[in-house]
Amino acid sequence: NTSIDIIKDNAIKRGGCTINTGLSTVDASIDSQLEKIKQVLME
Q1: pLDDT tens across 3-41, in order?
Q2: Is residue 29 a contact partner of residue 15, using CB atoms and an 8 Å limit?
Q3: Residues 18, 28: contact at Cβ < 8 Å?
Q4: Which of 9, 28, 37, 38 could form a disulfide with 17 if both were Cys (CB 3.0 to 4.6 A apart)?
């Protein structure tokens, strides 16, 4: 069985999303995605 808990976190900007698993954490916010795109374009 798999369960998902959705928890509001006021530290995360509106529209943001952080995914936590037992192995890692993924920041899926728009800001982090735009930063990654910027880094790739600057290479």
Answers
A1: 888 999 999 988 889 999 889 999 989 999 999 999 999
A2: yes
A3: yes
A4: 28
Rounded Cα–Cα distance for residues 12 and 41 (Å): 26
SS3 content of the chain, % helix, strand, coil (to 5): 30, 15, 55
Report domain extents, the chain.
1-43
Is residue 1's pLDDT more than 90?
Answer: no
Cα–chain center distance at 17: 5
Rounded Cα distance, 16 and 31, in Å: 8
pLDDT, position 38: 96
